[in-house]
Design brief:
Layout: H1 2-5, H2 19-30, H3 38-48, H4 65-78, H5 86-104, H6 126-138, H7 146-156, H8 203-215, H9 223-234, H10 249-263, E1 267-269, E2 275-277, H11 278-289, H12 308-319
Antiparallel strand pairs: 1-2
């Protein structure tokens, strides 16, 4: 599938910028391909062409500079065993920190504090903030890093849990412990809300929030982690992205896998008392969904998941977490 989907210039789905190529390259590297593998090498050379003078890794005229820089940075980090990409990673790290700093200037009382959106002054959201934390971690940041801790403030405000960490107007309206896209949503007449006027939790955001909190050093005994795990135990599902159906299903798989891997437990006990080997369950579900040519694709086109290059990249990343820890 990787050779089939790759262009002569090393790209995968270049019409949407460098992100899909970065996701595929990361997936290949995490599943045992070396930096000298022809497909990987061509992909990395293509991605190198997106390095900008400001340190960002994005396409000309891009409106999603944070997202593109984060996923491309992570691809270079996966390929950086011999430190050949130190310079480009350091520059990209400084760039995304600068994007976050724009919102931090408003002060912690502002709901947007610590979060980032797709780029520039766009509204911050949990998905992009989770990518930011992933990228900072890939570049070497620890849990106590200032930018990671600032991002944690925003992440906590995306949870349906009222606490000292979240006093937003949405926190107590739908207190199920799950996560939503952004606390800055819900204002317009078409905004999606629960019957109580809160913001609905869903799978990919809940696992993104859980993963981000763990990366930021929040422990298993913290009420935020307990509440998120509680939500996951009530909505354990690999046939859909809970709360969204098949929309974003493969993005859900990677957030599910990374979060539960970070949590460190082999099994997840669901609310019915059953214990699930989540790695085995995810592996079986991905095997069932794989096409005869080795690819994956989502029949639901939302969020570009009708693109087999993107969904195959997400599947490869998810599969890389199906191996037991330490293997």
């Amino acid at each position: 599938m990787q050779t089939k989907g790759q262009g002569a210039d090393g790209s995968f789905s270049p019409q949407v910028g460098p992100a899909v190529t970065a996701i595929v390259v990361s997936g290949l590297l995490r599943n045992g391909r070396s930096v000298d593998d022809p497909t990987v090498k061509k992909g990395l050379e293509y991605l190198g062409g997106f390095a900008q003078p400001d340190g960002g890794l994005y396409g000309k005229g891009s409106r999603i500079k944070n997202y593109e820089t984060c996923v491309v940075l992570m691809a270079f980090a996966e390929a950086n065993q011999d430190h050949r990409y130190d310079k480009i990673i350091k520059a990209a790290d400084q760039y995304i920190r600068g994007l976050q700093a724009e919102g931090v200037k408003q002060g912690e009382a502002n709901v947007a504090y610590g979060g980032v959106g797709y780029g520039g002054s766009t509204r911050p959201d949990l998905s992009n903030t989770a990518f930011l934390i992933d990228a900072l971690k890939a570049a070497g940041a620890g849990a106590d890093d200032k930018a990671v801790q600032e991002a944690l403030v925003f992440v906590s405000r995306c949870q349906n849990l009222e606490s000292a960490h979240n006093t937003t107007e949405w926190a107590a309206k739908n207190p199920d412990g799950g996560f939503y896209y952004t606390p800055l949503a819900g204002k317009g007449p078409d905004a999606e809300k629960t019957v109580d006027g809160g913001l609905p939790s869903y799978g990919s955001m809940t696992y993104s929030g859980l993963k981000s909190m763990i990366y930021a050093g929040v422990g298993a005994d913290d009420e935020r982690v307990k509440a998120a795990v509680g939500w996951a135990s009530k909505h354990y599902d690999l046939e859909s992205n809970p709360g969204k159906g098949t929309a974003g299903l493969f993005y859900y798989y990677i957030t599910f896998a990374k979060a539960l891997d970070a949590l460190g437990d082999k099994e997840l006990k669901t609310s019915d008392g059953k214990s699930h080997d989540w790695r085995a369950d995810l592996l079986a579900e991905l095997a069932k969904r794989q096409a005869v040519d080795g690819s994956w694709v989502n029949s639901n086109p939302q969020w570009l998941e009708s693109d087999a290059n993107l969904t195959t990249g997400f599947a490869l990343l998810a599969l890389s977490y199906c191996r037991p820890q330490g293997k």
